[in-house]
Amino acid sequence: MRSVIQRVSHASVSIDGIEKSHIDCGLLILLGIEHDDTEEDMLWLCKKIAVLRIFSDEAGLMNLSIQDIQGEIIVVSQFTLFASTKKGNRPSFIRSARPETAIPLYEKFVETLRQESARPVQTGEFGADMKVSLLNDGPVTILMDSKNR
After folding, report:
1. How far does CA 146 lie from the centroid of its chain?
2. What is the mean pLDDT of residues 37-49?
3. Among the options 38, 80, 93, 115, which is catalytic?
4. Is 115 one of the catalytic residues?
């Protein structure tokens, strides 16, 4: 399981011109699920994100978590995070999980992150053509992969 975690001042997800989700200060998480990911991968990633200290304290140091700042979270499914560009010019997505595997893990990830972080978690819509808008704060962008613990 792979994620791109961005500290944001605000973020939103729109589908067909209609805003589905919006947050102010918090995290935008792009989540890619690989065909062999398990609940163990999902749980490890949720626990890590819930306590990740990437928000600034009074001294300007990254010492605060999403819980500490009472921030919000948006999770957006992103199968392209497992793109392979080794051959040719068109990416291959063969490592990305099929919907029958990915959707239950995605939904479990959202619910588990909600529990682990004790924060509201909004979403995009799995498989939809989404427009994601954000103001990256810092900028702070963290890549995490459950296979690289």
Report:
1. 13
2. 97
3. 80
4. no
